[in-house]
Specification:
By secondary structure, the chain is an alpha/beta fold. The chain is built from 11 helices and 13 strands. α3 links the parallel β4 and β5. The longest helix has 24 residues. It is globular.
């Protein structure tokens, strides 16, 4: 295959590029930072990777590279868990997803020949937060800021269907691996100061990065996979259980809770990402026959940390 990928230098994207490249596929990396991308994917080690400069929120000559690609994987978006959600930051978070997806869809619609599939990232923030509800792919959307972002994001991706292109939307849970969210949780435990964040009762719906990459790969290659799928492991846990398991795997105590007010002081409105969660089940994903390598948190954290 020939696959175009946005967000390819990120935590998930770089893992995906390595997997696809290792299997002999050709990859077009669409990036704002070509010099950085060349460091991540040096040409001598990644001869099948083509690095193309693009402007996510603007039409341009970059869009022509979408023609002759078999598939497009759109992972780009401003990080939501870093820094306070000022009005400007919120606008960046929204625009990077809504406008970025709009321009990718525009490129696909105008391509000749067209890719056969668009795999577009979304997030379980779509469902809003709850301590008591359980969500699957049929659940209604929430009404908070992240839910509104996901609705706008997915609505732009849906326009690709008018061009006869198969669309797969993956609503990501918290992705666990060497980097990402886990990289921020490990240091306190290394210092014997780890513990649950906030009440500890909030749900934590997660997925191992290798399972997520496998999911994307399956979506690229299986034409019967179409529509919305939750990219989460089948066994979500509460924050207290996550902290307890992380402590066990690291052989460290889990005794020092991080109070909610400390997170709120640091992140403002963005604290909702870690202080409130949602129990999300991958009902449709399981129905496709997808086989998880890491269905349980213990096995996932053990693999990552040892």
């Amino acid at each position: 295959m020939k696959v175009a990928i946005t967000g390819a230098t990120g935590f998930v994207g770089s893992r995906l590029v390595r997997r696809l490249h290792g299997e002999g596929h050709r990859i077009v990396v669409l990036t704002r930072k070509t010099a950085f991308a060349q460091k991540v994917f040096p040409s001598e080690a990644f001869p099948n990777v083509e690095i193309v400069a693009y402007t996510p929120n603007a039409s341009g000559s970059w869009q022509s590279v979408i023609a002759n690609c078999d598939g497009v994987v759109n992972l780009a978006g401003e990080p939501i868990g870093e820094g306070r959600w000022t009005p400007e930051r919120k606008q960046e978070i929204l625009n990077s997803r809504k406008l970025g997806t709009q321009k990718i869809v525009e490129a696909i619609v105008n391509a000749n020949p067209k890719p056969t599939v668009l795999i577009n990232a979304s997030a379980i923030g779509y469902y809003g937060t709850s301590e008591t509800a359980t969500f699957d792919e049929t659940s209604l959307s929430g009404n908070d800021f992240l839910a509104q972002v996901c609705l706008a994001w997915e609505a732009e991706a849906a326009k690709v269907k008018d061009a006869g292109v198969r669309l797969v939307i993956l609503r990501f849970g918290v992705v666990l691996g060497n980097g990402g969210a886990l990289a921020k949780m490990i240091p306190p435990f290394q210092l014997f100061a780890g513990g649950p964040i906030g009440s500890g009762r909030q749900w934590f719906s997660w997925i191992h990065v290798d399972d997520l990459v496998n999911m994307i790969q399956q979506a690229l290659t299986k034409p019967e996979i179409e529509g919305v799928y939750n990219a989460t492991a089948p066994n979500p846990v509460r924050m207290a259980d996550l902290s307890q398991t992380l402590g066990q795997v690291m052989n460290r105590p889990c005794w020092l809770p991080v109070p909610a007010f400390a997170i709120e002081a640091l992140l403002g409105d963005g604290a909702i990402v870690v202080l409130e969660g949602q129990q999300v089940l991958p009902k449709r994903t399981v129905e496709t026959g997808f086989k998880y390598k890491y269905p349980n948190l213990q096995s996932a954290l053990t693999q990552i940390l040892t």
